[in-house]
Amino acid sequence: GEAVALGHHKPIVILGFRYAITLFVIADAMFFSAWIWAYLNSTALVSGAVLGSPPSEWVMNFDPWGLPLFSTLLLLASVTTINWSRHAILVGDNRGAVRGLAVTIVLGICFLGVQAFGYFQAGLAQPTDGALHGSSLFMVMGIYALHVVVGTLMLTVCACHVLAEHFTPQHHFGFEAATWYWYFVITIWLVLFVTLHVWGAGEFTTIAAPN
Fold first, then answer.
1. Which distant-in-sequence residues (6+ apart) come within 8 Å of 11 by Cβ?
2. SS3 of 48, please?
3. Which residues pair with 59 in a beta bridge?
4. C-alpha Rg value of the chain to the nearest Å
5. Residue 118 near residue 72, CB atoms below 8 Å
6. For residue range 154-175, what is the model confidence (pLDDT) as tens digits?
7. What would the pLDDT profile of 110-159 be if each residue is shown by its tens digit?
8. Report field, pTM of the whole predicted structure over 0.90
């Protein structure tokens, strides 16, 4: 494409790309806001017993200071590695950039593994008995995991471009876009950790439906 053939995109093209990734992140943030609100609202409704006919049982969230905290530490560690890679690209150190990206990708994969294990441990392999609370939690966490997968794939593609020497210290917007998206993914997780795990923390609790 233009970036490879000419060595860089034209300034107007770069500006369009920046607007596009910014609007995409804003739209994605609004999408997550809707699901988080649905979860918090359904939790309040269930706890207040105003749903009319709640399901036979529902399961509260697991200990936030266990697997969720470990997942948070993995993503926070990836901030350091992605910044390492970014600095390496800015100084023309392709080897360092690839190493930073490789570690970031590994951290992303480890995060997904921990989340999958937590899903089965918490009984969230499927929506909980049709309950709005369980379904909202299942959906928001599943969609978030998909975003981590997409972010990891974007970083993998960037690593391939670095190996092919397609990025230079002056022109590397593809890497910048992937970095912005990864920062967004980390920020959303921090919001999910506070709202879904810390705010909704509790032991595995079963609540019987009223007769």
1. none
2. coil
3. 206
4. 20
5. no
6. 999 999 999 998 888 888 888 9
7. 999 998 887 777 655 454 444 556 677 778 888 999 999 999 999 999 99
8. no
